[in-house]
Fold:
Amino acid sequence: MSIILSSLLVLGILGAVLAVILFIVAQKFKVEENPKIDEVESVLAGANCGGCGFAGCRKFAEACVKSAEEKKSLEGLNCAGSNMQTVANILGLTVEAAEPKIAVVRCSGSCDKAPAKVHYEGADICAFANTLYAGENGCPNGCLGLGDCVKKCAFDALHIDPNSGLPVVDENKCVGCGACTKTCPRGIIELRPKGKNNRRVYVGCMNTEKGAITMKHCTVGCIGCAKCSKVCPFEAIEMRGTLAYIDPAKCKACGKCVEECPRHAIQKVNFPQKPAKPVETPSEENKTEN
Amino acid sequence: MNQFTISGSPHVHGDESVKKIMYTVIIALIPALLVSIYFFGWDAIRITLVSVAACVLCEWLIQKFLIKGDCTICDGSAALTGILLAFNVPANLPSWMLVIGAFVAIGVAKMSFGGLGKNPFNPALVGRVFMLISFPEAMTTWPKAHAIFAEKTVTDAITGPTTLGVMKEGLGAGKTTEEIMNQLAENYTYIDSLFGNRGGSLGEMCVIAIIIGAIFLIWRKVIDWQTPVTITATVFCFAGLFYLIDPMHYAHPLFHILNGGLLFGAVFMATDMVTSPMTIPGKIVFALGIGLLTIIIRLWGAYPEGMSFAILIMNAFVPLINKGFKPKRFGVIK
Amino acid sequence: MNPIKTFNKGGVHPEENKLSKDSPIVVFPIPEHVIIPMGQCLGAPAEPIVQKGNKVKAGQLIGTAKGFISANVHSSVSGTVNKIDLVMDHTGYRKQAVFIDVEGDEWVDGVDNSDTLVKEIKLTREEIIARVKDFGIVGMGGATFPTNVKLSIPPDKKAEYVIINAAECEPYLTCDNRLLLEKTKEFLVGVKVVMKAVDAPKGIIGIERNKMSAANLLDKTIKEDPYFAGIEVQPLVTKYPQGGEKQIIKAVTGREVPSGKLPIETGCVVINVASTYAIYEAVQKNKPLVSRIVTVTGKSVKKPSNFLTRIGTSADLLIEAAGGLPEDTANIINGGPMMGKSVSQTDFPVIKGTSGILLMSVAEAQPRKVSNCIRCGKCVQACPMGLEPYYLNKASKLNMFDETESHHIMDCIECGSCEFTCPANIPLLDYIRFGKAKTGAIIRARK
Structure:
């Protein structure tokens, strides 16, 4: 009995003493923080993707609270992965909803359309392979397919398709944070507005070489024929050297250019499937949807 | 025409490979295996085979069904762990205990960390210590070594504690080292340690076989000589210090070196690449720690043998040692 | 001769495979067309100053250096400029180049194409350096660093030694070895010129032990002629990377180049053999850098050879002359096997830094299965710079660039000893190069 009592006593006293020490230490080293930071952080995506430009969600929340206190606005602060309206509500501000964006991969040179001429053996880092050679298919602007963007994506929205060798964006998961666009050594991934009804049209090529050379690497490369820019009723397509670029602000996603492109380099996404045409080549471009 | 390969330099590679390293260590263990077969006969073969089979099977199962990765058993590391584990147990250990030990060694100590190269602790030693704690009786009674060609059959072999155990017990009972040595002298001399005619785990029996293995490994550049030499030297000095102070209550340093698993551990366990430091100075510090801890455990600990605990404790310090002992940078003046 | 020396830390010993060491230098015929890339040196590419249709002579300036780290480019042949266009270089990227159709072999005035040895150095120090700059001489071991920058000693420094890097530690390559054997005297005059340019009293030729015939020949020539006084031959242990700039300084003088500093801190100027010969030709013979010796080799190559070829010649022709592209070629390397670059096609032009064209067979280039790091520490022991490649590899992979910086990733000389020795076949150097590039960018951004 006395053993039980003494052990209870010893443990009890030990617990009490330690509790007091803990309390004193906690008081002494207490860090005063705005409770709103915690509140803001709790509604953020929590992926620490760095897409906002801060080192993690906590830092972003701190920046939001600071900006709200000092400038009474959240200007320049945007987290694509969370609802900024909620953040603004917590901080007692109003915010205009930004247009939702999504990452698109501007390379269509899949394994069958741009066959490999050499074989790469080494570290699976695009940034390194980019310094080493032009690419397995020889295109100096095309996707290297080693997945730096996949590794960077904090939302699991990018995957390399084993059949095409190209990264594929999962529309349901992509929040448009833009981390992938910064990490791609060739700038292939672009953030574009999601578009009306989620429909988008973009040039799936980044090759700036002359048409004849492009043709050697890739069957779906933009050769700079400018047919698309002529057919576009909204003047949304500008020719950057020998590469067409569709300005998302002007594009109304009519899809005329898609049909016009002789190389099938222009991609349209989420358009309803047309009934198969009776004429030859039944909807080659629909196959290239990502 | 061929498809040319594009790769970063260098484009040639030395003839080193993980497989080669593992099989070199296995070859270095052959003399010790032959000695154990000589002394324990079929039991030695049974223990080794069961242990290797259990380790390889365990790795294969985990790799196939849990990790779903490539098959890695061909690199020989699981087989090596199996042999090392077998060499760390008494010859009369029941097979089922050994299988449990093997599963702990591979499953818990190695694969749960991500497989070869990622384990912080030596898998074979984790397996051994697990068995030592779980089955203390079976793990500390050793069949007396005697040649299979001798008249008595193996089953008749006397079981008993090792010389280290006798020493520990004797000192605990208040005897002096001299008395214990006299008592031991009936059937043990230092020469027996050299040739392996004594009680003990499979691998630690014969000092000569271990030294042959060590020379082979050092020659093949698989291990550095610094680790085993430092461990032995530390043990000699540290134990020798106490022997000089009080020879009646502390055994002769040679007794410590030649008995128990010290040499086996120093050559085969402490030099495990995965769980030892990267640089030579780091390795020396690591070995120093093992030597000191071994003697501390042997002299004042509860167990007569301290080698496996010492190595495991020092394994935990390896990341710290790696951080503290960097190679000398070229052109950097501190 | 001095006793054999070596650097003290790390290093590996790859199979030497000096297959072409007994093949004398063959003067390669001038091809019908040459393609002269404008970017032939480390730093900015040169700017073309000729136009389509222009007639050029061999040795005529066709591209001028742009910026401090850049080198002039000269026409290697006489003929007509066909076009100025992009050409796929050895990396597969397109770079600007001048295409010339060859007509005859007419040289610009003043070039001494005779074989007579010119010993007397008429130019002053400044004139030599200016000549080296004008004639576009770069480091011809492969790094292609403009030589005039190396020779311009900062006013507060003093050069004590000129070290000629004749180690040729890369396996397979023999171009320097052949040059030493066949142009011994010219080379030694070149050493004298460099010694004068940097005002160094002593010139040391560091040469690996596997080239003792060349070393003995050099030693004999130096002893025979008092004109060569001050030049010494220093045999070195055959160990890679003996020819690394920092390693050869350590081996020859025992001095260590401080981290992040240039070799001149130790009072040494290190020049490659081929560059020394080019300096001789430029200074004594008034001949710009328009040709070089290229080793074409490989285990399956029928005639491993050393060609004296004009810059801009297609590698295709050289391979053809060495017996054609072997059936089992898996990997074409521009340079040696340890530091050379993989090439995606054979028709790339030879440039100033092309020391060799190595055709690796399938058997040699066999891809090896990568396994986990077993923390054996072999890379740490092989690293000649005292770095921890296993750690740099891991930190680079995880984008921990503050860690790579504090672990001296910028000191990495990219010799590849770590990857060569790695039993787990991890592409260590790939990751380290990536980490080094990123870390370097971060450091530059901070400044």
